[in-house]
Design goal:
The complex is a heterodimer. Chain A is mostly helical. Chain A is built from 10 helices and no strands. In chain A, helix 5 packs parallel to helix 7. The longest helix of chain A is centred in the last third of the chain and has 39 residues, at 188-226. By secondary structure, chain B is mostly helical. The two termini of chain B are 34 Å apart. Classes of the chains: A mainly alpha, B mainly alpha. At the A-B interface, helix 1, helix 2, helix 3, helix 4 and helix 5 of A face helix 1, helix 3, helix 4, helix 5 and helix 6 of B.
C-alpha cells in the first residue's frame, strides 16, 4: 500500500463531518481505517484505541466542574447574569455589545459553560441592542438585520476568545493532551495563560469593530432623515 | 508531596467515573427517557474507562470505546426530562442570593490557578488542581444554596446528560490524534506540505499552520478536529520543531482555528442557529458580519505566533 493511504482516515473525518454523521462514530471509524491502512491488525487497533482513550482521560476533566455549574444554574445563575446585563440599558448598541463581548469572555475565563445564543442572545442581548438602536432612530430593515447579526457576532467572539483562558476548558485540555502525547511538556495553566493576550486583543478588536457599527448606524439614520424618500438605501 | 501526584490524579479520574456511574444509574431508572437502557449503558461504559483506566487491559478498553461508539451511532443516547426549576423559582433564588451566585464559579477558577501555580503535586498539579477546585467549588455552591442533597445529585446528572456525548468529543479526538501519529498521518501530511513550504523557514511554517487550522476548520466545521490533524501534520514539524514554544504555538493555533469557525456554514451552532433564533432574512448574515473581524484576528494571530513563539 502506498504511504499516503493512511490519509484515508482524514478523508473519513472530512466526509463524516460534512454529512453530519454521528461524530463519535466518525472519529472511531477514522481511527480504524487509519490503523488498518498502516498495515496493523484489528487486535492491534483495539489495543491502541483503548490505550489512547484512557491516556487522554485528562481531556475530559471539565466534567468535574459540571455539578457546581449545574447547581448554581438551578439557583438562578443565569437570572442573576440577566439582572446585571439589564442594568446596561442606557448605552449605544455598539457599546452595549462591546460590554456583552467582555462579559462573555469573562464567563469563559471562569469556566461557566453557557449556550449563549439560546440563553442570552435571543432573550436579552438582541432585544437590548435592538432597543438601543431604535431609541437612536435606526429602525430600517437593513439596520435591524445588522443589529441581529452583530448580536450573534458578539456572542461568538466572546465565546471563542474567552473559553481558553480557563484551565479546565476542553480546548485547553485537548491542546495539552495532543502536545503531551507528542512529547512536549505543557500544562493546562500554561496554555490558559498563553491564551490571555489574544483574549485581550480580541476585546480591543471587538471594541473598535462595534465603535464602527455605531457610526454606521448613526450614518444610516442621518441619511434616512436627510432623504426625501422613505425607506433605506 | 510530588510523589502523591500520580495517585491523586488517578483519584480524580475515579471521581469522574463515580459521576458518570451516577448518571448511568439515574438514566436507567428514568422512565421519561425513551432510550434509557442504551443511554445508561453509554454512561456506565464510559464510567468504567475513567474509574478503572489504570488497571483496565488496553484491549478491553478498546472494546469499550467501540461499544460506546456503536451506542452513539445507533442514536441510543437520549435524555429524559429534568428538574430545571421554573423561571419564577430561579428568579426568586437569584433575588435571595444576588451576586453571591457567581462565587462558586469564581472560586473554581481562583482555586485551580492557585494550586497549579503553587504546584505541590509535580507535573500533574494542573490536572489535580482542576479536580480539587471542582470539589471545593461544589461545596461552596452547596453551602451557599443550601440545596437538599438529592437536588445536588439531580442537577449534576442533568448537566452531564445535557452536555452529553458532544462534551466527550475532545477526548475522542485526542485519542484519534494518537492513532494518527501511530499510523504516520503526520509524516505524510508533513511530506506533502514540505513540497510547498520552504523547509526551515519559521514564518512560512507559522503561516502554513495557521492557514491549515482555519481551512480545515472551515471544511469540517470543528476546530478541535482540525487541531488534532493539523498540529501533528504541520504544527509540530513546521513550527514547534523549528524552535517555536509549544505552549504559545498550541494556544494561538486553537484560536486561529476559531477564525475558521466564524466564517463556515458548517459550524451550524454558531452561525446558523442565531439566524433561526433571531429570525434573520439572510441565511449567511452572521457569517457576513463576522468575516472581516475573523480576517483581522487571523492576521494578528499569525503575527503574534511568529513574534512571540520564537
Amino acid at each position: 500500500m502506498p504511504e499516503w493511504f493512511v490519509l484515508v482516515g482524514v478523508l473519513v473525518i472530512v466526509v463524516g463531518f460534512l454529512l453530519k454523521l454521528d461524530v463519535i462514530a466518525v472519529v472511531i471509524a477514522a481511527a480504524l481505517v487509519t490503523t488498518l491502512a498502516a498495515g496493523e491488525s484489528f487486535l492491534a487497533f483495539l489495543d491502541l484505541l483503548g490505550k489512547a482513550f484512557v491516556d487522554n482521560r485528562a481531556v475530559s476533566l471539565f466534567l468535574l466542574t459540571l455539578p457546581m455549574i449545574a447547581l448554581s444554574e438551578r439557583y438562578g445563575l443565569k437570572e442573576q447574569a440577566i439582572n446585571l446585563i439589564s442594568k446596561l440599558h442606557a448605552l449605544t448598541p455598539g457599546r452595549f455589545l462591546t460590554i456583552y463581548t467582555v462579559i462573555r469572555q469573562l464567563t469563559g475565563i471562569f469556566g461557566i459553560r453557557i449556550s449563549g445564543m439560546v440563553q442570552f442572545v435571543r432573550p436579552i442581548v438582541h432585544p437590548m441592542s435592538s432597543a438601543a438602536a431604535k431609541s437612536r432612530g435606526s429602525s430600517s430593515e437593513s439596520d435591524t438585520e445588522l443589529v441581529k447579526a452583530e448580536s450573534a457576532l458578539s456572542e461568538n467572539i466572546g465565546n471563542f476568545f474567552g473559553q481558553n483562558g480557563f484551565v479546565a476548558a476542553s480546548g485547553v485540555l485537548l491542546i495539552v493532551g495532543t502536545l503531551t502525547e507528542a512529547g512536549y511538556d505543557v500544562t493546562p495553566e500554561l496554555i490558559a495563560a498563553a491564551s490571555l493576550p489574544m483574549i485581550l486583543i480580541a476585546a480591543i478588536v471587538a471594541a473598535v469593530h462595534f465603535w464602527n457599527i455605531d457610526r454606521r448606524l448613526t450614518k444610516h439614520t442621518a441619511d434616512a432623515e436627510g432623504s426625501e424618500v422613505a425607506g433605506d438605501e | 508531596m510530588s510523589d502523591l501526584g500520580p495517585g491523586l490524579l488517578e483519584a480524580t479520574f475515579v471521581l469522574i467515573g463515580v459521576l458518570l456511574a451516577v448518571t448511568g444509574i439515574r438514566a436507567f431508572l428514568d422512565h421519561s427517557n425513551p432510550r434509557r437502557v442504551t443511554t445508561a449503558a453509554f454512561w456506565l461504559l464510559l464510567s468504567i474507562t475513567f474509574a478503572f483506566g489504570a488497571v483496565l487491559p488496553d484491549r478491553l478498553a478498546g472494546i469499550i470505546v467501540l461499544a460506546v461508539g456503536a451506542l452513539s451511532l445507533a442514536r441510543g443516547v437520549k435524555t429524559g426530562t429534568f428538574d430545571e426549576g421554573t423561571p419564577e423559582d430561579r428568579g426568586a433564588h437569584a433575588r435571595r442570593l444576588g451576586n453571591w451566585l457567581f462565587a462558586p464559579a469564581l472560586s473554581l477558577a481562583a482555586i485551580a490557578v492557585l494550586i497549579s501555580t503553587w504546584a505541590p503535586f509535580g507535573d500533574q498539579s494542573g490536572s489535580i488542581a482542576i479536580g480539587i477546585a471542582s470539589v471545593l467549588a461544589l461545596v461552596i455552591a452547596w453551602v451557599l444554596t443550601r440545596a437538599p442533597a438529592p437536588v445536588v445529585v439531580a442537577q449534576s446528572d442533568r448537566m452531564i446528560q445535557q452536555v452529553g456525548p458532544i462534551g466527550m468529543l475532545p477526548q475522542f479526538l485526542a485519542m484519534l490524534g494518537v492513532v494518527f501519529t501511530n499510523g504516520g498521518v503526520g509524516e505524510v501530511v508533513a511530506n506533502g506540505i514540505a513540497k510547498i513550504v520552504p523547509e526551515g523557514n519559521q514564518l512560512a511554517g507559522v503561516i502554513a499552520y495557521c492557514v491549515g487550522m482555519a481551512l480545515f476548520t472551515i471544511i469540517v466545521g470543528n476546530t478541535f478536529a482540525a487541531f488534532t490533524v493539523i498540529t501533528t501534520g504541520i504544527g509540530i514539524p513546521f513550527v514547534i520543531a523549528l524552535g517555536g514554544n509549544p505552549v504559545i504555538v498550541g494556544a494561538i493555533a486553537m484560536t486561529t482555528g476559531f477564525c475558521g469557525t466564524l466564517v463556515t456554514p458548517m459550524a451550524a451552532n454558531f452561525n446558523a442557529l442565531p439566524v433561526g433564533l433571531l429570525e434573520m432574512k439572510n441565511t449567511y448574515g452572521v457569517i457576513k458580519a463576522q468575516a472581516p473581524l475573523a480576517a483581522v484576528l487571523f492576521v494578528i494571530q499569525v503575527v503574534l505566533m511568529y513574534v512571540w513563539a520564537f
